[in-house]
Amino acid sequence: MYLRLGAIVFSALASVASAQGTAEPNYPSRPIRMIAPSSAGGPVDVIARVVSQGLGEVLGQQVVVDNRAGAAGMIGAELVANGSPDGYTLMFGFSGPLAIAPQLAAKRPYDATKDFAPISLVSQGQYVLLVRPSLPVSSIRELVAMARAQPGKLNYASGGNGTGIHLAGELLKLTAGVNIVHVPYKGAGPGMTALLANEVDLMFNGLPPALPHVKSGKLKGLAVAGAKRSPLLPEMPTVREGGVDFNTAGWYGILAPPKTSRAIVMRVHAATMKVLATPSVSENLTRQGVEVIGSTPEEFAKILREEWSKTEKVIKAAGLKGQG
Q: Which residue in 62, 95, 172, 215 has its CB near the most CB atoms, within 10 A?
């Protein structure tokens, strides 16, 4: 949908050339900090490190990933929203702190549509609907039928209030018209551990951490939540194919603090497009279960506004306000 890397790279290089002289002429002249508002080892961290390593090679300066987890990513995001607009603090953002968690918080620490300088959308990752093996269902239709027959009995894990996998669970409840109890954990990892231990019945999670458990039979995967099937699990239907009319996916992108100069934004954007067009990076991200996507800063800003609006409607319909 946004993948036009060749044209975007050319446009970005032209924009950088026209903007030279409006920022630090030899930027970057020292290492750059990339805030990853998540714990180490999770999908956000893994993808951020792949992209940051490539950026460091293109920019000629090390790009150091700094994990700042907590509050569904809002702690790290707030650091960037209040950061210096000099190009040496960036964020590897995702849907949780940019479209969901702030809308659940009693007091919003920032406005994601105004308090960042979007640089580029980077990738999009599938969520997969997982259930414990002992749950007697083999499709999403059977799961919905069970939930309707036993309202409030089934429960689902998430990585905490305001995470993307939390919202995916709420979308399932709303769209299918079922009552399934939300059980938030302090991260997707602990939620997955609970599911593997049969402490909860189901959860949505990112494809990379779910894949080995699905293939080993430790968990049952019922459907992927994106608009199309995953090449990593081509036999698994989408949620929509399973009879529930919605799709949602995790997405990741690079942003800078507000008021960062256009020259710096376009310098980092051009480097990002070059990284994403590198076959080794693209292949690495594909192995992580994500699709490489390139966008202009303006396209990414538009996506942020659209995601904010879409999430706002779900939160209101589900009555989730104040749960963050």
A: 95
Distance CA 158, CA 165 (A): 6
Contacts of 274 (CB under 8 A, 6+ apart): 9, 58
Model pLDDT for residues 159-205, shown as the tens digit of each residue = 888 888 999 999 999 999 999 999 999 888 899 999 999 999 999 99
* Residue-wise pLDDT tens digits, 95-138: 999 999 999 888 899 999 999 999 999 999 889 999 999 999 99
60 φ/ψ sector (left φ>0, alpha ψ -120 to 50, else beta):
left
Fold annotation for 5-124+250-318: D-Maltodextrin-Binding Protein; domain 2 (3.40.190)
Cα–Cα dist 202/227, whole Å: 21
Which 3 state secondary structure label does DSSP give 275? helix
The dotted CATH code for 126-224 is: 3.40.190.10
The Cα–Cα gap between 253 and 44 comes to: 10
Please indicate whether the domains covering 5-124+250-318 and 126-224 agree at the CATH topology level: yes
DSSP, residue by residue, 248-268? -EEEEEEEE-TT--HHHHHHH
Task: Specify the pTM.
Answer: 0.82
Pairing of strands 32-36, 220-224: unpaired
**DSSP for residue 237:** P
Q: Which two tokens stand for residue 57?
A: 């090679």
